[in-house]
Amino acid sequence: MTFLHPHLLWGLLLIPLLIAIYIFWRRKQEATVLLPSLRGLSGKGGGLRVYLRHSVFVLRLLALSAVIVALARPQSTSSWRENQVEGIDIMLTMDISTSMLAMDFQPNRVEAAKEVAMRFIASRPNDNIGLVVFAGESFTACPLTQDHATLINRLRDMTPGIIEDQTAIGSGIATAINRLKDSKTKSKVLILLTDGVNNTGNISPKMAADLAKTFGISIYTIGVGSSSGEAPYPFQTEFGTIVRNVPVDLDEPTMKQIAEISGGAYFRATDNNSLSTIYQKIDQLEKTKLSTKNHRTIYEEYSLFAFIAVIFLLLEFLLRSTLLKTNP
Q1: C-alpha separations of 30 from 25, 26, 33, 114 in Å
Q2: Residues with Cβ < 8 Å from 310, sequence gap 6 or more?
Q3: To bridge 72 with a disulfide, which of 3, 21, 141, 167 should be the other Cys (CB 3.0-4.6 Å)?
Q4: Are the C-beta atoms of 325 and 69 separated by less than 8 Å?
Q5: Taking all residues of the chain, what is their mean pLDDT, rounded to a whole number?
Q6: pLDDT in tens, 244-262
Q7: Does residue 95 sit in helix, strand or coil?
């Protein structure tokens, strides 16, 4: 309990002062009777009036104390905090063309990309996240969802060879945009990961980037591939798997253009560590928004003390009018 006017509580110091004055006054009022002996008065009670003679003064002090507390405006409060989480809608758009089997990442590009993406998903429990994969065509592997366990299981199943080969970057972006465009969240993000050059599809990467900008979707592009210009690649032959170096065929200018048009950023990943760092940077750039609302309700309690003061005054009045009534 708090008080709106706590300085008025100093008035309670009047109570001991009034008690001292009352005691002094009562002693001044007592008459002295000289008796030869008190033997005849022993065992004689004073009656109910004697026992209640100070009750009027006590009730008056209690009423005064209650009035002082009431004037200080006692208040009780209740407060609570309401946290509101505003998530972000994120579409992971991943290249699963056969070139993603290159082994400049461990164990290869696609498995490294899946592993880092799974850690990214696990770190954002409040966001809706979906998955689009593309090669020669694109499809939605998982729509936007907060069921991240299902999303991760779908991601694990995505491997090169399940759809027609080649690289349709524009189509992959367009499919992801189609999933994000009707989102009601303030932040809509598309993370595009590829290691190649757009060489098929009806939609160019630039056209897809313009479309993303129209719907307020930011695209973070990640180009994967060794910085040496070559990467080991497994070839299947009749004698088994043979690993040979192949050129890194990454269209960085287009990746940068997509990011610039849509208001995102471009990152280059050359190994597992740099890819992990890139996802950490994106995680920092696109933070889930947490807003806190504090609610506080104040209840006035002075009426209780005013009621108590009235009760004490009524008791005083009843005693003075009945048991302690003095004859005129």
Answers
A1: 9, 6, 10, 100
A2: 63
A3: 3
A4: no
A5: 87
A6: 999 999 999 999 999 999 9
A7: strand
Walk me through the domains of the chain, giving residue ranges and CATH numbers.
2-27+46-79+295-321 (no CATH), 88-287 (3.40.50.410)
pLDDT computed for residue 326 by the predictor: 65
What is the tens place of the pLDDT at every residue in 296-314? Answer: 778 888 888 888 989 988 8
CA–CA distances in Å: residue 253 to residues 186, 218, 224? 29, 17, 13
CA distances from 247 to 34, 105, 112, 227 (A): 129, 15, 19, 11
Q: What is the pLDDT of residue 25?
A: 82
Q: Which of 48-57, 169-178, 184-193 has the lowest mean pLDDT?
A: 48-57
- Single out the residue of 268, 219, 277 nearest to residue 248, CA to CA: 268
CA–CA–CA angle 158, 163, 169 (5° rounding): 85
Rounded Cα distance between 41 and 167, Å, is 120
Nearest to 198 by CA among 262, 134, 261, 247: 134
74-103 tens-digit pLDDT: 888 777 666 566 678 999 999 999 999 999
Q: Name all contacts of 153-161 with Cβ < 8 Å and 24+ positions apart.
A: 155/92, 155/114, 155/117, 155/118, 155/121, 155/131, 156/114, 156/118, 158/94, 158/96, 158/110, 158/114, 158/131, 158/133, 159/96, 159/110, 160/96, 160/97, 160/98, 160/100, 160/101, 160/110, 160/135, 161/98
